[in-house]
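User: I'm designing a mutation panel for Repulsive guidance molecule BMP co-receptor b and want to avoid disrupting the core. Could you give me a predicted structure to guide residue selection? Please restate the sequence first so the numbering is unambiguous.

Assistant: Good idea. Sequence first, for numbering, then the predicted structure tokens:
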Amino acid sequence: PPGPAWTGMGRAGCCCRGAERLASPSLVRRFRPVLLLIIALLFLTLPVCVSSTGQCQVATPQCRIQKCTTDFVSLTSHLTPAVDGFHTEFCKALRAYSACTQRTAKSCRGNLVFHSAVLGISDLMSQRNCSRDGPTSSTHPEVHPEPCSYHSRTQHPGYLFCGLFGDPHLRTFKDSFQTCKVEGAWPLIDNDYLSVQVTNVPVVPGSSATATNKITIIFKPYEGCTDQRVYQAVTDNLPAAFDDGTVSNGAAGKVRALWISERTPGHHVELHAGYIGVTVIVRQLGRYLTLAVRIPEELAQAYDATQDLQLCLNGCPSGERIDQAGHLPLPLSPPALGLQLQQLRRPSYASQTQAYPYGTPQVFGVDGAKERCREKLEEPDIYFHSCVFDLLTTGDANFTVAAYSAQKDMESLHPHRDRWRIYPRGSATSTLNSDCQPIKRLTLLLLCALSVALMY
């Protein structure tokens, strides 16, 4: 059985003896200026924080002792002394474990778990009479992937995100944010595995703004996993099943290849295609629909020349853009909206208005629209700006919830947290966030240098 040193591999050590003296207040006060200068100098070597989130990622080598231990356990968990060749295979695994610790030794200096593992390996080699030299077990033993699980078939997939909501506002695979007219039926995604098409209708008579009232999703046949499945949602009909009435294609092997999950009946549905690693979120908010999609990058690129019209891939055609190269000017309340409100107030419309399930439109000024959007969206990013635009354009307060839900769906599906926040071009926030980091760093360095000078 493993000795005491072996048992320490899985536990992190406690503080080192004498560490409390190094943290004494007198020493901290004495060396604080020097420490601040060192911190500042190190800070200059770090990458600039992402301007919109303040999140920093430091490229430092990581101690991989946990990975070494996990590999060893996977190589030996099936071995028992009663099995022929146990001694040979166990020694191979130990040598592989030892080689792994040697490769990560530089980045594990001072790590008590690492040093405990090294001692444990040495003890076990002595107990089992294993030689230091000899063949090693493969740290990547043969694995039989599930054919209908994309994650099982693919080691390190990269993902893309696309979203559509509001008037409509489109976030492409390249994180380009656009506001488009695109009235009628338009393809968002069209590749060898998946097709997503939306239909947009005018929101306010006389305005170019539209919104989505129909979404059609086609999961194309994939041998051994699924036949073709079609999902279609329209306003007031957000089904929890495919067109053929099924909610999944059944189990293929040990995993489900394709299934639908109804989160909120009639308002929120999620479609999961495990065989291609795709997740789609469809919502109805007010009278219109929103869409969010995550798809592996390699599958999104699997299309031919006849499938190049994809809004998620290439954005809206220039003639269909409402924004101006990323700048979305806030509209005044359009005359058409005023006429619509006058019609809704007429007696002939009274019974319809009372029965209307989504609420009647309102006239928002800029300040009122911002105040309403701020109830859901605190960060003045493009989702907030889109919310304000939609309220000014339509007077429909449901677009506030649509923008909020679209932002939350993006955060749940977008693979890169450092790209979540997009700010309107030319806004004070985007300018401030992009310029402040070098100034902050220079200021910190000057303050630290001054504190050192004052010591002398």
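For picking mutation sites, this is relevant: The domain at 159-314 is CATH 3.40.1000.10 (Protein Transport Mog1p; Chain A). The chain has a mean pLDDT of 79.
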